[in-house]
Amino acid sequence: MGRGVKIAVAVIIGLVVVAVGYFAIGRPIQVLPRIQTTIPFEMSDQNGDLYRYPDRARPMNLYVVVATWDDEAVARAEQMLERVYAELREQENIDELLEIAWISPDPANDDIESLRAASARIPILQATGAPLLTAAPTVVRLAVGAGMGIYVSPPAEGQTRVAYEPGLVLVDNVGYVRGRYSLNEADERRLVRDLPLLVAEVTAEGSEKALYEAAHLFLCYPR
């Protein structure tokens, strides 16, 4: 190998090392982790119409997992959705980018009539056109538990309502869960921080997409 070739190889290796360090330390592009993959599901909305995932999926999908009888959780979820909508309404084509859907984890107590009544009394659902979804208990537990990481337990002995942790789940255009959020203020701030990051990623084009894949490779996650 000639001296010139050795120098060229050394330069290339040096550039690769610099690039790796730049991404690993400088994190010029930040991405949300790909936590797990969702699974397809089929539910009914408050009008009795069929809702299929991923048929209804958009580049960004925000699922609210809250029972309509859970008044405190409903109020907090409503506040978080209003904040999300306020933060993103200036984003071009946001209605084409973001799908919002509300899933009841307790179909035994949230029938179609309950969902229809909840939809009528929650203004943000009217504003966004977000559906309220239900299905057989096993379907719901599989979709939100195995698919989204929000686990639902059957009613305890002597109880009539399921046990669960209410929350929101952010899913990307490929079907990866990119964030799970409880209903506290810290997670609300984290959700507001995360949404623009995912908007930037799902709208990236051309060579910019490769940069986002590199950011995933080097775990360039927000702190």
Main β-sheet, spatial strand arrangement:
1-10-9-4-5-6
How far is the first residue's CA from the last residue's CA?
A: 45 Å
Quickly name the level 1 CATH class: Alpha Beta
Count of helical regions: 8
Q: Radius of gyration in whole Å, from Cα?
A: 21 Å
CATH architecture descriptor name: 3-Layer(aba) Sandwich
Strand content: 15-25%
CATH topology: Glutaredoxin
Q: Look at the structure and give the mean pLDDT.
A: 89
Helix content: 40-55%
The parts where pLDDT drops under 50 for at least 5 residues are 14-18
Describe this structure in words.
- Helix content is 45%, strand content 18%.
- With 223 residues, the protein is an alpha+beta fold.
- The chain has one domain: 3-Layer(aba) Sandwich (Glutaredoxin), CATH 3.40.30.10.
- A hairpin with a 5-residue loop joins strand 2 and strand 3.
Concise account of the structure shown:
This protein is 45% helix and 18% strand. With 223 residues, the chain is an alpha+beta fold.
